[in-house]
Amino acid sequence: DGGITQSPKYLFRKEGQNVTLSCEQNLNHDAMYWYRQDPGQGLRLIYYSQIVNDFQKGDIAEGYSVSREKKESFPLTVTSAQKNPTAFYLCASSPGQPGSYNEQFFGPGTRLTVL
Amino acid sequence: GQQVMQIPQYQHVQEGEDFTTYCNSSTTLSNIQWYKQRPGGHPVFLIQLVKSGEVKKQKRLTFQFGEAKKNSSLHITATQTTDVGTYFCLMDTGRRALTFGSGTRLQVQP
Lengths: 115, 110
Hints:
The complex is a heterodimer of chains A (115) and B (110). Chain A has strands spanning 4-7, 10-13, 19-25, 31-37, 43-51, 54-57, 64-66, 76-78, 87-94, 105-106, 110-114.
């Protein structure tokens, strides 16, 4: 059963703590993406990766970090430097490179609340 | 840089009325995709438009890509309560720059 999984669905953290959000896909997709969505807002790109061991900053990368050690996995770390981390985080993947006319498949998202 | 706009931000209709959302870009697009996000859910791909002036239909949904490839619209005929959600466009300039529109939230009154 192919798809993208994100865990956990809900996450609570204290201010000042780093937190890592998991994203795994078994679709054999090359490209993976992280987006942030705030209430009533669109999706803003945080980071994307086109290939293992390579990733690029999106529009709002400050305060976030990623790694792409395996094709299937693209974890996102929300650091204490991120000024307003409470949001809904969505991971996506696509079979080709960004800009290559491929639809994106989204995971169910992680709702992060920083107290 | 690329300027994008999606309007309206929100629309409330009576069931059976039509609905349209528009996306506009300041730069020419290589393609545009449309996604639907149900309340509490994640975006799901609806369609991709590539050719200038392209029109595609999916049952009650009609998607158009402008002749200049700078704008697009999604039209729903005779809305149903199952159409509730937020509709996003994803604009691709073909230079590995992907930008989502801010979305149009559709509410359908039964």
